[in-house]
Specification:
The chain is α+β, with helices and mostly antiparallel strands. It is built from 14 helices and 23 strands. It has a 4-stranded mixed β-sheet. The protein has a 4-stranded mixed β-sheet with strand order 2-14-16-15. Strand 11 and strand 12 (219-223) form a beta hairpin. Helix 1 (22-31) runs parallel beside helix 2 and helix 10 (321-328) runs parallel beside helix 12 (388-400). The chain binds uridine-diphosphate-N-acetylglucosamine (UD1) and phosphoenolpyruvate. The site of phosphoenolpyruvate has 9 residues, from helix 12.
């Protein structure tokens, strides 16, 4: 297990370019399964989760051509569907959440799929009910394979229908859309997730010949088509990485430009940092965050304490709450962080408390942060990253702390951030990998 050694206190200055979005790429790469023709995808982040998914696709027979570090062609013209039932496949699926996104396209094109328990962050229960309910509505049947933690899905003649999702699940919506694009007739999905990465998936599918309308809303209409063809697609910048860089810039920046962020696809992320008192400037399609000696948290209009909580898009993504929380530790003012979706994502605050932060963990979902207002620096710490976003939050804390910190299990950070230490060292950080 690799470790980061971080010498804290070095200001970061300069320009950083966000990588392609992890959560979009996981979807669009899996969508390539829907056609035997080549699908060329640009701006693919070189991160652990993506490389594991690409390996998994290769294992099932997708031909993968790497044109450049971040550009690939995928061609699913000779898949080995028998491999889907193997123990090896099941084991590999458990290494990443994104593996779940293969189910929809496999079911949609071949009428069958194996569902192994997907991996991903250990941040609480991660149920797949929405996915299964959607597939069932389309006419698929699933059965548990005796003696194994695996389900088999069968649905050779999927039929369009109307469905109301039990929750606006992101991967659930992506999966159901991919299963429905070639189903017979018309499918209507209400309470669909509608974040930019789902929008991108739908646009890409339309470029492949699908007929999806309502993109960007929570009501999608899909007219089934006979088949899909190849296409080219460019992945958006990663909004969670952009948010992570805003947090870093606020805490230890001496003027940071985040290049080409696609502001229109960041939703309320910039505004949320502004509510913490961070000066987030929009310059063309870049964000510029000047040096902050202090920042003062807004209160609500009635004077009550600021609450930051997650909600399905266009609400605030849960994936940024850990970063916002660490930024709040140095604010002038107090904030309640309410992580509504996941139930084990806030436990890492223990480490921040060890480092000197003023935080009360009220329960697994809520933490009150009483900002230090730069009167006291955090102390260096020794910690282990439990999940990708706690990992980046710990890295931000370590960059600002007095002394040298260690973060173990950094594979969690590598899951979602490309070359993070090299890119931050180029801005002035002192991070080594051991
Ligand atoms: C690979 C990928 O794309 N992962 C993202 C995806 O995961 P994923 O698609 O797995 O997450 P879901 O959208 O299914 O739901 C996440 C959690 O929120 C709960 N929930 C969801 C919707 C809702 O209206 N109410 C509610 O409480 C679910 O029960 C679940 O516990 O979306 C999550 C929520 O944005 C992000 O954290 C993950 O980074
Ligand atoms: C929760 C996350 O990822 P995953 O769904 O891949 O576990 C995340 O990106 O913060």
């Amino acid at each position: 297990m690799e470790t980061f050694i971080i010498e804290g206190g070095h200001p970061l200055k300069g320009t950083i370019v966000p990588q392609g979005a992890k959560n979009e790429t996981l979807q669009v790469i899996c969508a390539s399964i829907l056609t035997p023709e080549p699908v060329r995808i640009n701006n693919v982040p070189d991160i652990l989760d993506m490389n594991n998914l690409i390996r998994l696709l290769t294992d099932i027979g997708v031909r993968v051509t790497k044109h450049a570090r971040n550009e690939y062609t995928f061609q699913a013209d000779s898949l080995n569907l028998d491999y889907l039932g193997s123990d090896e496949f099941v084991k590999k699926c458990s290494s990443l959440r994104g593996s779940v996104l293969m189910i929809g396209p496999l079911l949609g094109r071949f009428g069958k799929a194996t569902v192994a328990k997907p991996g991903g962050d250990k941040i609480g229960r991660r149920r797949l009910d929405t996915h299964f309910l959607g597939f069932s509505k389309l006419g698929a049947e699933f059965s548990r394979v005796e003696g194994r933690n695996v389900y088999e899905l069968r649905g050779e003649h999927l039929k369009g229908c109307k469905m109301l999702l039990d929750e606006a699940s992101v991967t659930g919506t992506a999966n159901i859309v991919m299963a429905a694009v070639m189903a017979e007739g018309e499918t209507t999905i209400y309470n669909a997730a509608c974040e930019p990465y789902i929008q991108q998936l739908c646009r890409m599918l339309n470029n492949m010949g699908a007929d999806i309308t309502g993109i960007g809303s929570n009501l999608l209409h899909i007219k089934g088509v006979k088949g899909l063809h190849g296409c080219e697609h460019r992945v958006l910048p990663d909004m969670i990485e952009v948010g992570s860089f805003i947090g870093m810039a606020a805490m230890i920046g001496d003027g940071i430009r985040i290049k080409d962020v696609s502001i229109e696809n960041l939703g309320i992320i910039p505004e949320t940092f502004r509510r913490l008192g961070i000066d987030v400037r929009e310059e063309g399609d870049d964000l510029f965050i000047p040096k902050h000696d202090t920042f003062t948290v807004d209160s609500f209009m009635d004077g009550t304490i600021m609450t930051l909580s997650d909600a399905p898009w266009p609400g605030l993504t849960p994936d940024l709450l850990s970063v916002l929380l660490v930024v709040a530790t140095q604010a002038n003012g107090s904030v309640l962080v309410h992580q509504k979706m996941f139930e084990s994502r806030l436990f890492f605050v223990d480490k921040l408390i060890d480092m000197g932060a003023n935080i009360i963990l009220c329960d697994p979902h809520r933490a009150v942060v009483v900002g230090l207002n730069h009167t006291k620096k955090l102390r260096a710490g020794v910690m282990t990253s439990p999940d990708i976003r706690a990992g980046i939050a710990m890295l931000i804390a370590a960059l600002t702390a007095d002394g040298t910190s260690r973060i173990g299990n950094i594979a969690q950070i590598d899951r979602g951030y490309e070359d993070i230490e090299e890119r931050l060292n180029a801005l002035g950080a002192k991070i080594t990998r051991q």
